[in-house]
Amino acid sequence: MELTPGLHRIGNDIVAAYLVEDESGLTLIDAGLAGQWSDLTAELKSMGRTPGDIRAIILTHGDTDHIGFAERLRREFGVPVYVHTADAARARGEVKSKPTVGKVKLGPLLKFFGYAIAKRGMSTTYLTSVNEVADGQVLDAPSSPRIIGLPGHSPGSIAVHVPLVDAVFVGDGLTTRHVLTGKVGPQPAPFTDDPAQAIESLEHLRATGAKWVLPGHGAPWSTGVAAAIDAVTDAYRAMDK
Fold first, then answer.
1. How many alpha carbons lie under 13 Å from residue 81 in its C-beta half-sphere?
2. Best CA proximity match to 178, nearest among 12, 8, 14
3. Which of 112, 141, 164, 165 could form a disulfide bond with 56, CB atoms 3.0-4.6 angstroms apart?
4. What sign does the CA torsion over 36, 174, 13, 121 have?
């Protein structure tokens, strides 16, 4: 789905990945679930593109619902995969997360896991080779994506700022649809290692002034990064009352 010229979403409000495009090719941010490969190729076809036009994959973190088809692209098309140093082992399947889950509602929970099973989320192929990145780095990749450290959800969680499309891609730094409760709107994401740190890290995004805030789960947010941060912070404070 085209959100704005040069910016496309793959997947849906349950699990999403994104493509950004310039004259040099495509950068993919996150790789969803393995079975979303067909969603990727369908979106590429609508753009007049092929997987061979993807020049880089940037993972916002190393969880299985964000690395789904990354190894396939790396192996079959030679696409380099970038992940923060602190999440490299996670993306290779060498370490597992120990997240805080929080409240759960049966309906949304079943919908999330049902979708994940249908899209082969339980049979993820981990990365065998990654390129490690750090906070502040601007990658030599289409649209010149900049890495912003966003630790909390995982030690190596990042956001990706792409000024060309006025967007910041936040992975699970926040969510606009809670996969375990069904609640919509900007809020803390579930399965977070350190919820308090995750909230603090969001302030790193404010200076981008980005219009688009694009999470791995939930609808795209186009009302600005400041409003998103404020809403998530308010929701987090309300959880403590």
1. 29
2. 14
3. 141
4. positive
Burial of 57 (0-12, 13-18, 19+ CB in 10 A): buried
E strands, 150-225, where? 158-162, 167-171, 175-177, 184-187, 212-215
Say if residue 89's pLDDT is above 70.
Answer: yes
* DSSP assigned state of 70: H
- CA distance linking residue 94 with residue 71, whole number of Å: 15
What pTM, to 2 d.p., does this model score?
0.96
189-224 pLDDT, tens digit per residue, is 999 999 999 999 999 999 999 999 999 999 999 999
Per-residue b or e along 94-106, where b marks 16 or more CB atoms closer than 10 Å to that residue's CB: eeebebeeeeeee
Geometric angle at alpha carbon 212, from 77 and 166, rounded to 5°: 75
